[in-house]
Amino acid sequence: REHLYRKNYSKFQCQRCKRNFESRLALDSHAECHLACAPRARRPEDGFTFEIYEALHSKKKAFHGQTEEEK
């Protein structure tokens, strides 16, 4: 899972153009620009969304003998 977080998740991504930013400040500056960025559909190389990040992060580790409900 750590590989997924490092390589496929960007904490600061424009929801409109899918560009990644290093900080919240940089993303906010981009969002406040007078010229709006061009909307673009999400592609696999854009990484995954915050919702998917939360779902992956909240899953418990599986241990031998656990039922599906316990996982």
TrEMBL record:
InterPro entries in the cross-refs: Znf_C2H2_type
Domain C2H2-type: 12-39
Keyword entries, A-Z: Metal-binding, Zinc, Zinc-finger
Single annotated GO MF: zinc ion binding
Protein name: C2H2-type domain-containing protein
Organism: Amylocarpus encephaloides
